[in-house]
Design goal:
Length: 144
């Protein structure tokens, strides 16, 4: 069962973060302040989908990996604490804070500073998760 759940949950997590990142960037570049506020206030609701998906991906991944010494699994395991810490310590609090600031109409330097940090950390997580996705496909024999 874990072999089915893990790639689905991981893909859902990756795509959800990608949608958050792209919608933030597009709204900032081309949208009005109302659009930016709508995006910033919608993202925390997406956590109801994202957090369980990432928890399932992590739990099933560690279960399948067991005590394996495969270099691909070792690399995935080394990336996961960085992804998790980045998400819990930076991305989640930033998203809630930006949602609150945008609900107050506060689009000043503080908003854009936090937004820049959030976009940078989100890009790091997307890059690390894409490497894990690549290594997972290699482990499954679906990628050379």
């Amino acid at each position: 069962m874990a072999r089915r759940i893990h790639p689905i949950a991981g893909t859902i997590g990756f795509l959800t973060i990608l949608v958050f990142w792209i919608s933030t960037a597009v709204s900032e570049l081309f949208g009005s302040p109302a659009t930016v506020a709508a995006v910033k206030q919608a993202i925390p609701w997406g956590f109801l989908w994202l957090v369980p998906a990432l928890a399932l991906a992590g739990a099933t991944g560690f279960r399948m990996a067991g005590a394996s010494t495969d270099p691909l699994i070792a690399r995935k395991k080394r990336r996961m604490p960085i992804i998790a810490a980045n998400g819990v310590l930076v991305l989640l609090p930033s998203a809630f804070y930006l949602a609150w600031l945008s609900s107050q109409g506060e689009f000043g330097p503080l908003f854009y500073s936090v937004q820049a940090v959030e976009l940078a950390c989100g890009a790091v997580n997307l890059a690390l998760m894409s490497l894990n996705l690549r290594d997972g496909l290699r482990l499954a024999g679906r990628l050379a």
